[in-house]
Amino acid sequence: MSWLTKIALKKRWITFLIIALVTGVSFWSTLTLKMELLPDIQFPVTSVITIYPQAKPEEVVSKVTIPVEGAIADIDGLDQLISTSSEGSSFIIALFEYGTDMDEVNSLITQNLAELDLPPAVRELPAEMPQLTDNPQLYAIDINASAVVSLSLTGDISSDELEEIALSKIIPRLEAIDGVYQVGISGSAKEKVLIDLNPSRMNEFGISMSQVAASLASQQYNSLEQVEDTLLGADVLLLKDIAGVTLGPPPGTALTRTNGKPSFSITIMKESEANTVAVANRVAAEVEKIQTTLGDKVELVTVFDQSEFIERSISSLARNAILGFALASIVVFLFLMAFRASLVTAISIPLSILIGFIAMRFSGITINILTLSAMAIVVGKVIDNSIVVLEVIYRRIQHGEAFREAAINGVKEVAIPITSATIATIVIFVPLAFLGGIIGQLFVPFALTITFALIASWLVALTVVPALSNFPLSKKAETQNGIVWYQRIYTQVLKWCLARRTVTLVIAGGLFLGSFALVPIIGTSFIPSMIDKSLRVEIEMPVGTDLRTVEGVAMLVEEVLAGEPEITVYQTTVGTMNSPRGGGPVGGGGSMRNDSGSNSASITVLLQADADLDQTAAELIRAFDGLDVDGVITVITGQQAMAAQMSGSGLDVSVRGENHEDIARLSEELFAQLATVEGIADLEIDIASVEPKLNINLDRGKLMASGLPMEQLLQIGQEFLLMSMGGTVAQASIEGKSYEVFLEGIVQDLDSVEIASELRIGWPQSLPLSDIAAVELGEQPTYIQRIDQKQAASITGSITLQDTGAVNQAVQKKIDAVSLPPGTEI
Q1: What pLDDT, on a 0 to 100 scale, did the predictor assign at position 645?
Q2: How many other CB atoms are found less than 10 A from the CB of residue 218?
Q3: CA–CA distance, 758 with 756 (Å, rounded to integer)
Q4: Which among 87, 114, 277, 378 could disulfide-bond with 307, CB atoms 3.0 to 4.6 Å apart, if both were Cys?
Q5: CA–CA distances in Å: residue 692 to residues 695, 777, 781, 793
């Protein structure tokens, strides 16, 4: 390897010029590297959503879910298939092995879906719902296109004015920012005139839903009273005689509040390849500019900024790396007792790391807590090669050799040892290259970062250090050939160990084995908590509770939060968080069940940096216990919430089989056992409940023989859709504001066969529902979950102990102790 040294010494000025150029490129590489919290993780997952209007869960499973699962099940690389079938919809998530080409997979799934033989009601739905492009619809999931900033727009003005400001003044400017993929807005849903029909009163007067819709569509309204006084048909029957008319949010929407005021939530999603910190900083700068244009009555608050934690984490690791560099330089100086020689070795540390950053830049590796940790760890290692080379050159010069001969001969003497040592260290990380899954995606960049820095240190030691080692020696250094103080200490220790080899080996073995005893004390976990002082309050009200009632309970909770001095911001979401601009759910997560969510609310609470998170959570729990509400209020800390989301840091157990009764019984038994395991919190069981439900099955033969005109026959499907899901049928202008008149569905809440059978269908001619359909009351599950094409139930929870390994072992013991019925597995 001495040929490298000869090249570096032949034209030293060229070597120094190359060093300067490399340093400049290194700074450019470092400044342009992406900064992320974690390495880019490519989750091989995709999803398929299918809408099947009015179909019961069992029918959705048999006619939609199972065929769609079949279209995915035979694709190479499939790891797990999870489906949830509820009334009118099917939701399937497909997880593939890491390394799978998801573009190819999504293309193949789309092709397979197009070839499926699905019910006409599924295939023809996009023609009736223009916002639905395909049915089934594939939704590719890219976790790296994540939310980087969450904002809240609030003020002392109406919701309509707030929404107009968001849509016209804020969102266009945020969407124009480089690196922003999508800006979603949700909350404070636009109010509508809601028509809540009474089926019994409709039957009493022989009124069909299509008749109500037609009557409403033919009128112009300037007040709620005019809507109530809508004349139905030729009689004197008014709308208010058979329905309630109110102004409020439509079903299936959400309300958001920030610090107790109505607000809109604005979520900024970055492009998957964009730099999180750079995008977030550009957003923050633009938000400051936007705020100056909004006036005093409107406030744009930052609720969440992912870049703040990233920058704090990386700054902390950078400080540790700099501290390590300083300590290493001091130690080298104490041993060599030569300032210039110590300075040469010290230079090798930043130079090796900067060269490592060049390699990272061109390898597509980002700066994150793992790669920066690797750099912090390698600080003490990259100096080793330089110390060895410098010491041998320094010693040869002391012995009278000329600089050039000392440098070349010294490198020849140690080139093989430092090369083998560098290779041996790099080889340690080779097994990481063969790791699969999320572990491989996280730690391969970690290993490569260390490898790059070590190779750079080897090159620096063979080229830069010899070129910089031409320094004059003092008279004292020239004559210093004796044993120095640390050599004397080491010699005495070595002599003692050699004279007592058995004792030395026993002590070494005892220390080695004893280190394993520390593992239970230290604990094990996949990834430590990486979240600010925050907690979440979950409100769950009885099924069927309307949105305004849930909002009232949320306001009671907000009053408690407002009295806590350590709380800085709290944002409330009541109902389902869907973007009115088509952005879909904001924030991700949540249940896979396709319910409306109108009976629940979630409040995100941010605390001061010095707040005691556990104490605040305990105080809130006590305060909420004192509230007189007909629901369940749960407090979840930020650490627990993240643990539930991160792989390996949460509990997720599924029970699968062919028999629903066996699955339910086994799941409840296992749930009771897991509740006794220390270190598990927020344990929940997800079993489909069975409830009485009306089954309305249209008989097409009776329909064709009913005598209804052909134009009405063609509209029966739309009327059934209106009865099931409701819809907008007219417009109203109230106090200068425009509102949609929304006719709410009636089938969902019907529990009487007699009332349902007497419902009139059609307009202008109508007939009883029982004349064209079979109506019966039966037991049906609220939803059906399947995992790997088998019925399933799941138990989830968060692991609160640092030693997740011990908790997982305890859970496995509980699972092993359960007696499994035939055909059932956990």
Answers
A1: 46
A2: 10
A3: 5
A4: 277
A5: 10, 7, 9, 20
pLDDT tens digits for range 66-98: 999 999 988 888 888 988 888 788 999 998 887
Number of separate helices (H) and strands (E) present in the chain: 31, 27
Q: Rounded distance, CA 341 to CA 477, Å?
A: 12
CA distance 82 to 91: 8
d(CA 108, CA 71) in angstroms, rounded, equals 9
Instruction: Please provide the DSSP assignment of 28-97 as one string.
Output: HHHHHS-B-SS------EEEEEEE-TT--HHHHIIIIIHHHHHHHHTSTTEEEEEEEEETTEEEEEEEE-
Packing angle of the helix pair 437-468, 339-363 (nearest 10 deg): 140
Measured on CA atoms in the order 230, 232, 238, 243, is the torsion positive or negative?
negative
200, 188 Cβ separation under 8 angstroms: no
C-alpha separations of 185 from 192, 265, 801 in Å: 18, 6, 37
What pairs with residue 657 in β-bridges?
791
Report whether pLDDT(481) > 60: no
Q: How confident is the model at residue 333 (pLDDT cuts 50, 70, 90)?
A: confident
Q: Give the integer Cα–Cα distance in Å for 469 and 389.
A: 10
Can you point out the beta strands (E) in 395-493? none
Written as six digits, the tokens of 498 are 């050699």
Q: What percent of the chain has pLDDT over 90?
A: 4
> Using an 8 Å Cβ cutoff, are 294 and 165 in contact?
yes
Structural tokens at position 293 = 């244009």
- Helix, strand, coil shares, percent, the chain, to 5: 50, 25, 30
> What pLDDT is attached to residue 504?
92
Compute the mean pLDDT over every residue in the chain, rounded to the nearest whole number: 80
One-letter amino acid for residue 626 of the chain = G
Model confidence at 36: pLDDT above 50: yes
Tokens of 446: 């970690």
**Which amino acid, 444?**
V
Query: In Å, what is the CA distance from 784 to each residue of 53, 109, 568?
Result: 16, 22, 41
Which of the four pLDDT bands, split at 50, 70 and 90, describes residue 506?
A: very high
Using only C-alpha atoms, the chain has a radius of gyration, in whole angstroms, of 35
Say what percent of the chain tops pLDDT 70. Answer: 87
Q: Which secondary structure element, helix H or strand E, spans residue 120, and what is its range?
A: helix 120-123
Return the DSSP state at 241: G
Higher per-residue pLDDT: 639 or 38? 38
Strand partners, 603: 537, 572
Residues in the chain: 826
Residue 434: CB atoms within 10 A of its CB come to 8
Query: Kind of pairing, strands 737-743 and 192-197?
Result: parallel
Res. 644: pLDDT tops 60: no
pLDDT band at 569; cut points 50, 70, 90 = confident
Digit-coded pLDDT (tens) for 701-711: 888 888 888 88
pLDDT of residue 726: 84
Distances (CA, A) of 166 to 63, 152, 157: 42, 10, 13
